[in-house]
Amino acid sequence: MTTVYVPRDSAAVSVGADDVASAINRATGDDVTVVRNGSRGMLWLEPFVEVETPRGRVGYGPVSASAVDELLANGLLTGDDHPLCHGPVEELPWMKDQQRLCFARVGVTDPFSTTAYEEHGGLVGLRRALELEPAAVIAEVTESGLRGRGGAGFPAGIKWKTVLETEGPLKFICCNADEGDSGTFADRMLMEGDPFCLIEGMTIAAHAVGASEGYLYIRSEYPDAVAALRRAIDIAYSQGWLGENILGSGLRFDLFVRVGAGAYICGEETSMLESLEGKRGMVRSKPPIPAITGLFGKPTVVNNVLTLASVPKILADGGAAYSALGVERSRGTQVFQLAGNIARGGVFETAFGISLGELINGYGGGTLSGRPVRAVQVGGPLGSYLPADRFDLPMDYEAFAGADAMLGHGGIVVFDDTVDMSAMARFAMEFCAEESCGKCTPCRVGSVRGVEVIDKITGGEDPDGNLALLNDLCELMTEGSLCAMGSLTPNPVRSALDHFPDDFTARATRTEKEAE
Amino acid sequence: MAVESSGASVAERVRAVVDAHRDDRGALLPILHGIQAEFGYIAAEVIPILAAELNISRADVHGVVTFYTDFRSEPAGTATVKLCRAEACQSVGAEQVVADTEQVFGVKLGQTTPDGSVTLDQVFCLGNCALGPAAQVNGRLYGRINRSRLVEILASAETRAASPTTENGAGS
Fold first, then answer.
1. Which of A111, A271, A307, B165 is the most exposed place for a label (fewest CB within 10 A)?
2. Is the pTM of this model over 0.80?
3. Is B128 on the interface with A (CB under 8 A)?
4. Is any Cβ of chain B less than 8 angstroms from the Cβ of A178?
């Protein structure tokens, strides 16, 4: 009996993994078990087929359905050499050089197998947490140095402590799975590839702060993640991992999936809470903070998927082991996502401190187009654009803040030298205008004016005057907006202006020359 | 999510969706998703029924429906094509894919072809940022999209629609 792995991750399926799995099933029959695992995160190799052999799992990719017969005839089932064969997967530099804590099981196991989950270290963290007093659980999380992975980087332990210390008969755990930032897909991959890990993390949080209900707010653009979590939650209930008397501890915790409806702003935590309450996703003023007055006015933990999914490992191995990784105040690992115009894109989990250049040129292999890298946007649509001469920057929260940039959710989008940075700056404003909740004027109106002013600059209409106006506008949006949407939109605009000023004026000059 | 609908009036069908979510906290979003799954869109006539059932104002319901991009006020085409226009897909030519697709179908983003076969929409990020340009066709994700691949996908989507038992439906 041979075991073959074909990912079920939607990125793998998006380039034909389902067809590959069917082709293998058809050609092999009962001698072969096809396991649908998550993705290893080497997305340029998808569909990436692995076969269990005495020397470990051997990988082939990218495999198309039409190549399956030929691969089988040439010894796929015994891990034989082939132009598409990459050898033992664990020995590939991309895999070997990572420190996979959060993503330890993603791509390795069948996401819905409870036995595989426990065999690979699942539930160890929850079992240990349930033996500890809530305050002791929080002490571990605080000691680990874990900071919110959604982008803001707020220390998770402090947030949890506030919720624990706020009295109330009803408290909530909300998982923000509204991963709307372009260039980020780690939340999606974790939800599809290891949903039990997220459920375990939320259950630990519930025990730590005294919450009895949890909500997973997943964006509607991720139907496969929604289906995966719903299925995993049903299984977890049947195993006694959710519901009453979890693992015999007396803890009760109920978990529900809620689906967003196509609003980027609902990734902002207070807007997400409004949406969960069945309202328009309008941002709330802070204070009060959600930890004290959150969902339906109750004390609420709001954490990102990766924050909560990091918790089981922290509890299993202790906070000190986690904080031994990383640099300065960025402790532990971050799941970096290489995206956009990149030869080898995917997820790469490693300790904070690796340089931007190592990730993009080293592991990522430069651009997909083969042209030089011109600009990189880190941290989603509200993150700054960096030129290729800043590749020395270490990936940690403070180093990025020092360079007027932000790490955000760890997404890195690469652009080659054909990019027009004035168009990207204009898009940042256009996106803000499209997605603003409309509550505060700097964001709602500023973004519309931003598009107009950039059009005037690139159209050659009083460039100096309009550049000054754009700078004024950016400052006003930064200082005057209610939430990160309006206050961070100037990041991509100003960084594009600072690093690539020629893109804004050259077009006007070009047009004049053409007119002559 | 499917609600038994043979011969039932619109109001009965709406109430059935509401009843399925009676015990949910802040149930309006799940209900609206349910209504859209039942009818394909959220018609103006549904709003007063929802308001009465949930004991909130019609303005409240209308406000929520119009806030979220997903909720349609009129039916979509047989196939819904969502093209990603976010930064990562732009870096590998998404804008060209949008232009090509608009030309192929003769409609702009946000419009449905006159024969009702295809609705074209934009979307900002489908989480397939290393395999862009990305698109979602009838809820299924596709990567490395270009003009010819999209035409192929739509042809096979029609075949699938004719025989609705798909192996790996992405539905919720």
1. B165
2. yes
3. yes
4. no
The residue written with tokens 């654009």 in the block is: A385
Q: Which two tokens stand for residue A460?
A: 């050659």
- What is residue B22's predicted lDDT score, i.e. its pLDDT? 92
CA distances from A478 to A115, A228, A384, A482, A483 (A): 50, 38, 13, 9, 9
The DSSP element (H or E) to which A416 belongs, if any, is strand A411-416
User: Contacts for A507-512 with beta carbons within 8 Å, 24 or more apart?
Assistant: A507/A420, A507/A422, A507/A458, A507/A460, A508/A457, A508/A458, A508/A459, A508/A460, A508/A463, A509/A460, A511/A459, A511/A460, A512/A460
What b/e string do you get for B86-98 counting C-beta neighbours within 10 Å, with b at 16 or more? bbbbbbbbbeebb
Q: Within a 10 A sphere around the Cβ of A372, how many other Cβ atoms?
A: 11
Tokens of A222: 């991720």
How close are the terminal C-alpha atoms of chain A, in Å?
A: 75
A 51-80: CB under 8 A from B: none
Residue type for B126, please? L
| Span B129-155, average pLDDT | 94
Question: Is residue B61 within 8 Å of residue B101, measured between CB atoms?
Answer: no
Percent of chain A whose pLDDT exceeds 90:
96
What's the gap in Å between the CA of A128 and the closest CA on chain B? 31
Confidence of residue A511 (pLDDT cuts 50, 70, 90): low
Report whether B78 contacts B118 (CB < 8 A): yes
Q: Which helix (H) or strand (E) holds A455?
A: helix A441-458
A224 touches chain B (CB under 8 A): yes
Average pLDDT, chain A: 96
b/e per residue, A77-93, with b = 16+ CB within 10 A? bebeeeebbbebbeeee
Whole-angstrom distance, CA of residue A231 vs CA of residue A194: 12
Residue A395 tokens read as: 């990936």
- Residue B47 makes CB contacts below 8 A (sequence gap 6+) with B58, B61, B62, B65
DSSP A131-178: HS-HHHHHHHHHHHT-B-TTTT--BHHHHHHHHHHS--S--EEEEEE-
Tell me: pLDDT of B169 over 70: no
Confidence of residue B7 (pLDDT cuts 50, 70, 90): low
ipTM entry: 0.94
Which chain B residues have a beta carbon less than 8 Å from that of A377?
87
If one compares A29 and B106, the residue with the highest pLDDT of the two is: B106
- Give mean pLDDT, residues A270-282: 98
Please state, in angstroms and rounded to a whole number, the distance separating the CA atoms of residues B41 and B46.
10
Smallest Cα distance from A324 to chain B, Å:
31
Q: For Cα atoms A30, A32, A38, give the angle at the middle one, nearest 5 degrees.
A: 130
Q: What mean pLDDT value characterizes chain B?
A: 89
Contacts of residue A183, Cβ cutoff 8 Å, sequence gap at least 6: A337, A339, A340, A377, A380, A411, A412, A413, B86, B87, B88, B125, B129
Which residue in the set B87, B144, B168 is minimally distant from A381, CB to CB? B87
Evaluate if residue B160 carries a pLDDT over 70: no
Look at residue A371 and tell me whether its pLDDT is greater than 70.
yes
Phi first, then psi: give them for residue A472, nearest 5 degrees: -60, -45
- Taken in order A182, A186, A187, A193, is the CA torsion positive or negative? positive
pLDDT for res A505: 83
Question: How close A40 comes to chain B (CA, Å)?
Answer: 13
Inter-chain contact B71–A427, Cβ cutoff 8 Å?
A: no
A:B CB pairs within 8 Å:
169
Q: What is the number of alpha carbons within 13 Å of residue B83 lying toward its C-beta?
A: 26
Beta strands in A263-329 (DSSP E): 300-304, 326-327
Model confidence band, residue B159 (pLDDT cutoffs 50, 70, 90): low
